[in-house]
Amino acid sequence: MRNSIMDINLRPYLRPDGRARYLAIAEAIQNAFIAGHLQPGMRLPTHRELAADLRVSVQTISRAYSQAEKLGVVHGVIGSGTYVSSYSPDQETEFFQSGHPETASNPIDLSIAHPVCTKRHLQIVRDAMIRLAQSDNDQYLLKFRPVSGLAEHVAAGQHWLQGQGLPAHHDNIVLCNGTAHGLMLALASIVNPGETIACEELVDHGFIALARTLNFRLTGLPIDDDGLIPEALEVACRESRLRILCCTPSLNNPTGSLMPRKRREQIAAIARRYDLLVVEDDVFGALEANRCPPLASLIPERTFYATSFTKTVLPGLRAGYLVIPDCFRKQVIAHLTASTWMATPITFELVSDLIRENLLDSMIFTQQDELASRQSLARSLLPEALVGGSPFGMHIWLALPDEMTSQDMMARCREQGVLVTPCQQFCPNPRLAPRRVRVSLGAEAFRPRLQEGLQIVRNIIEA
């Protein structure tokens, strides 16, 4: 009989990142499998044996084995035990490291903020769709009230948000068709036409388009490597009588900055002091390996919080959550009704299934690991002094030599078959645009294509 997993020490594969222990153990089994330390056909120890070895409960090991089976790493045999799966441990690695003939003649896309779409992600969603088709519950196809979302979908979102550090009451959660839709609902509910609201001096280009659509003006506030500078916000509040702040504390687009907890507390204190309403865009936040509590957890009474899964799981999974202060529910529901009546229930049935089966977080953990590897690749290929952003974010914020503008860089990259995004798209005031481009790391599924694109970018800078 093959060796037992008890011959393998799982502790080097366990990441103490604050997640539930069963998820960490399941991922440790998966990583040991990918590393080749667990061989196909190997019998795992009993639940009691592994629980004693790792000093956890038997129930924790039961849930870990169940999760590992959902990941495709192990399978159970009734009356015999649990065994390592028989397919190659390089299956997922081959997906990333092999080329794809259909993409060979297309431009290498380093321009769009896009999660890495793996075969496993797609298969998990297909399996979930099959479960929905076979389920007797078809209420999500028939009901169109309440407008804020079906109770079971809101409950699933409430559970997931709590894992992100945001305890929210179900009455304060509104389902929306993605983060952009959530931000539109929030701002349409509180902004007056022609009003000026504050944001970071570099902000997601979708937000700039939203300002044009809703007819409000933006004033960009100074930032540093940790995000929005509290002192700059206080000066603006004192001198300009600001009423609304929109910001992205976690993995700002395009800079990739990550605001530390102390600064979030300073921003929250300023918001209270000046009676400031805050709109928090947290679409990238779940990519943080160790989450910093959202601003909304510090000042829930004055913060609109929007997130979704388009940047952390799959780009077409347009299911979002908008958490709102109590006193604005009526206004938000009115704008939701006018814009789409209610968010698409079938999408939330799919997402809620993934949450209940603990698969959504697993897909996000895979995204974290893959983006961290891609960041490491980018930082090894590009000049270190020019690379900005988080080492586990979706993109890098690349500085350019003094003689090169971002438009020059974009044009030269395009000539050589690579797409990047110039800084002007992220500037409320384009005249203040720095000499930088955003280089995204997720849209190209295959690493050789990404590496080729990054090498071209490096060659252009060095030339």
From TrEMBL:
Transmembrane segment boundaries: none
Stored CDD domains: AAT_like, WHTH_GntR
Domain of life: Bacteria
Molecular-function GO terms, alphabetical: transaminase activity
Signal peptide: none
Keyword annotations of the record: Aminotransferase, DNA-binding, Pyridoxal phosphate, Transcription, Transcription regulation, Transferase
InterPro entries listed in its UniProt record: Aminotransferase_I/II_large, HTH_trans_reg/aminotransferase, PyrdxlP-dep_Trfase, PyrdxlP-dep_Trfase_major, PyrdxlP-dep_Trfase_small, Tscrpt_reg_HTH_GntR, WH-like_DNA-bd_sf, WH_DNA-bd_sf
Domain HTH gntR-type stretches: 19-87
Protein family membership: In the C-terminal section; belongs to the class-I pyridoxal-phosphate-dependent aminotransferase family.
Name used for this protein in its record: PLP-dependent aminotransferase family protein
